[in-house]
Records
---
Amino acid sequence: MKYRLYLIFVFFFCCVLTVNSQTKSIVSLAHSLTKMIYLLEAQDNLVGSTGFCEQAIDDGKHVVASQMNVNVEKILSLSPNVVITTDLTPARDLEALKKLGINVKVFDTPASFREICEQFVLLGKITGREELAASIVNREKSRLESLRKQIPENSKPEIFMQLGVKPLFAVIPHTFMDDYITMAGGINIAAGINIGTITRETVLVRNPDVILIVLMGLVGKEEKQNWESYTGLKAAENNKIFLIDADNACSPTPVSFVDTVEEIIKFVYF
């Protein structure tokens, strides 16, 4: 009997060690990656995040970075197993973290929905939730396919997607945000433009059928009113100027990406 109890204890102890060895203490320096952590239900592993990660802040996670600065000392004090970030984090901060022996995983800015999904699966591996990550990706790919079937045949609306005001900034090809336009069955009027800056005159000349404004708050509303004031602009004449949820569109997970495509399809066609 004592031997059986001993075996049970050893088995239980080994299970605990196995779970603990898979548990990772994570610091996220990117809002989009923090959102993915929560989608993967791995927030208990998250110990620090940026001041823009509202979910993490509401959960009482440590703030370790602002828009301009990364608090390397604060990160070190949290003893994370891994720091996850994007290529937008200053190289000097990444080097400082690596020199202190901190494991840093840098995710490139995704160029497509496919890359968003690939990074999500990779983050699933890092957090020990690879199976959940794959399940979510498969579900969202199926949902996207179903949404695209709602697009009327032979409909190719020309779309301008605006990201900034001063200067005026457009979504350009070969970016994940361009996928919003193409997957919603549209044509990007910024095709052929290599940088995002664009003049208002160029937009008026290309005369899009639809304008999607990815700006928050009062600025977005003012831009909508501004575009609506132009005579001869097809998007204005057809009441096809819309505000898009900036948080979902600019910091996507597989789920929020498809949510944005769904929003655009509803705006454009229905």
Note: Residues 2-22 form the longest helix (21 residues).
---
Amino acid sequence: MHFVETEIISQPDCWRRAVTLAPDSLPAPGERVAVIGCGTSWFVAQSYAQLREAAGQGETDAFAASEFPFSRRYDRVVAITRSGTTTEVLDALDRLRGQTPTLALIGDPDTPIVDKANELVVLDFADERSVVQTRFATTALALLRASLGEDLGRAIADVELAVVEPLDEELFDVEQFTFLGRGWTNGLALEAGLKMREAAGAWTEAYPAMEYRHGPISITGPNRMAWMFGTAPEGLPEQVAATGGRFRAGDRDPMAELVTVQRLAVAIALDQGLDPDQPRHLTRSVVLRGVDQ
């Protein structure tokens, strides 16, 4: 069994452990917060930002670490990084030192970020050996959702099913996937697309569900699928059907639905003779040297 397969099926236990944590260092209600990350961590940041504002906890923005607007003022900046070595995140924390309190959610505490952030939340039990990130991202988001007062009992029950149920055989015949979200699930849709591209080299796109009808729906047709995270906008399933394409909207917690996509990406990779632990052109962390940021 590949590392990523083991890490995917461990997610129910990771989520259960995450929701019992209550770090004092997480943003307090009313704080103006920015959340940064790269790749998967950026998508988790987007989901958290949407959830925090929707919960009335305060204005919350999410940025790719390389695009953080240093001219803005925040009460706290939260960095999400599994490896703790990503160049853009470390550079951002260096520039924020002495100006803005910073917090890092990390998987590996034995990394340079320990000396960069003011405070740490260590999720070492969710760290991973695979290049492809799965359980760290969902565990970080489980922690953040619980910190906003959400009861994740249903989500954990849903993911327990998601890691063991047989995958729909018809999904293996789809030639193109478009993942869709609304609100906090936009980040999950982006992450679903990334997982399929990373592990399986699949042709995927991702959009806010309402924006999908403003052009991107033109890519959908026979043997192609629009996959919705959360509740679909009224009329969207019928519009997808009219293209000849397939539409999927699971009734489980959207994070559990993401786990199904993770499993599908790995299964497609293995079917094609690819190594899902070591995707083409990728490393566990992007560490840049001698590059003008």
Note: Strands lie at 33-37, 60-64, 76-81, 102-106, 119-122, 176-181, 204-208, 224-228, 246-249.
---
Amino acid sequence: MRPISTLGPDEAKAIRFVLMDIDDTITTGGKLLAESYGALWRLHDAGLVVVPITGRPAGWCDLIVREWPVDGVVGENGAFAYYLDDGHRRESFHPAATIRNDAAVFSEMRQAVLEGVPESRVSKDQFSRLFDLAIDFAEEAPVLPLSDAGRIKTICEGFGARAKISSIHVNTWFGDFDKLSMAERFLAERFSYRSVEDIRSVMFFGDSPNDEPMFSHFPMSCGVANVRRYEAIMTSLPGFVANGEGALGFAEGVDYLLSVRKA
């Protein structure tokens, strides 16, 4: 991982799209700080396309796309994208997102997880999800070790589900989609993005294993410093890394990107 301070002028000026994870990437201690929210506005005011790419639920994404300075949001680890069009909220669902989380298999999987990892619990935002089950291991107390998150992931995969570990949840779903596939689909639909030709026009900020598809694909990805906590369980790391953690690391990366673009 290169320090973000080594980002060159040509690299910075090629960026058109800035994508970012939410939890522990633009937040610190569960809060969206003034520094990171201001950074979103600075990106918006600079004319860049801004799109959060998150594991958070549909209910959160509805608020985000309406109230934040963003051009869309990809939610539930790639199940859908929401965006505003002429004042109306629109949605684009990934074609592989066909099994909603009210299917019987989710109840069976949830029971297996809660019995297999006794201190785990269903995320408090589960009520506003459409396609996935989120198991909380670190958002609220007790904070469980990463080894428990790994056990949760293994149980879910035993049901044939996909599962990803974030900094706070294990998200699990059925269907061949992830953050990367929906992000590229949305950018292509809305902004004529071309996966091969435009790959260096995207900068993605993230922090944890569920961001690996983005890190592995986009050479201009940047981790906030807390990504280093997960190096031992990740196979794909970002191309760059900020000095700061969470919200402050994101603001640091954005401000450096924008300053170099002006040089």
Note: The first strand starts at residue 2 and ends at 3.
